[in-house]
Amino acid sequence: MSIQATALAVQVSCAMLLGLVVGACSSTDAPGAPGSGGSGPGAADGGPSGSSPASTDGGTANGSDDGSPGSADGDAIAIVRTGGPEHLTVDDRARPLNVEGAPLFGWFPQDPDGNEVQTAYQLQVTRELDAAPIWDSAKVTSSEQSYIAYAGPKLDPGSSYTWLVRTWDRTDQPSPWSAKARFDTGLGDGDWAASWIRRQASEPDDYTLARKELTVGKSPVVRARVYVAASQQYELYLNGQLADRGLAFSYPGEGYYQTTDATSVVKAGGPLAIGIIYHWY
């Protein structure tokens, strides 16, 4: 006898609200199922209810930079040449969707002069939804160009941010600012608004379909994410279309989740059907 389980959180943000919002304008829905009992996220194997499908030391994130659904985390992003630093990354990824802990920034300096070196840098981080400045490192004397830790105020979970950087050369001349890059913060153990959907399977190789329908609020949708912990593999469908697939491994006491950018699919005032086929093996 095996038990299959998945946890699903849907986050939709609208133009007039900030952060994780609930109500007519947006949705944070977790489909229930017989046996879930409305409990919070927990270990898929029936572990302590205080555990979470989120793993604070890891996890995967997938989604495309242009807002279309699908797995494109780490995909190449078109370079906008400003004369400033290029190939901006956070945690070694071009557009991560679930940064947990302090983001680690990296970039390639650019300079029209030959044989140049970086002598200093400056980073700026902005909240994407309302363009609020969050952190300015000011000028930091350093030649480091990778794994530069964020040192600003705590970032909101499940939120989008933009950042940019400029550098100084050996003659203390500043470069232009880089083009903006983006990253999303992930969900920590206490941030999941989801319940495990469990059923007892008659065979170890059974598949389970979980489905939920909802109506999106009427305000313009500016951001939509789907977070899935599925123990162990799954396919995500939005309005009948395959939006993502992936592995979401589970271990005693912790589990991994995957994030999908669904902004292009979620329409203001329209229906949204969410389906997940998941499979334990």
Could you outline the blueprint of secondary structure elements for this entry?
Elements: E1 2-14, E2 86-90, E3 104-108, E4 120-127, E5 133-136, E6 140-141, E7 148-149, E8 160-168, E9 181-184, E10 197-201, E11 207-215, E12 221-229, E13 233-238, E14 241-247, E15 250-251, E16 254-255, E17 258-261, E18 271-279
Antiparallel strand pairs: 1-10, 1-12, 2-3, 3-7, 4-5, 4-6, 4-8, 8-9, 11-18, 12-17, 13-14, 13-18, 15-16
State the total count of DSSP E strands.
18
Radius of gyration: 21 Å
Q: Calculate the terminal CA-CA distance, rounded to whole Å.
A: 12 Å
Mean pLDDT: 75
Shape call: elongated
Uncertain regions spanning at least 5 consecutive residues:
13-68
Beta-strand portion reads 35-45%
Biggest beta sheet summary = 5 strands, antiparallel
Q: What class would the helix/strand composition place it in?
A: mainly beta
Number of helices: 0
SSE topology string: EEEEEEEEEEEEEEEEEE
What is the share of helical residues?
under 10%
Structural commentary:
- With 281 residues, the protein is an all-beta fold.
- The protein has no helices and 18 strands.
- Strands 4, 5, 6, 8 and 9 form a five-stranded antiparallel sheet that branches.
- The protein is elongated.
- The two termini are 12 Å apart.
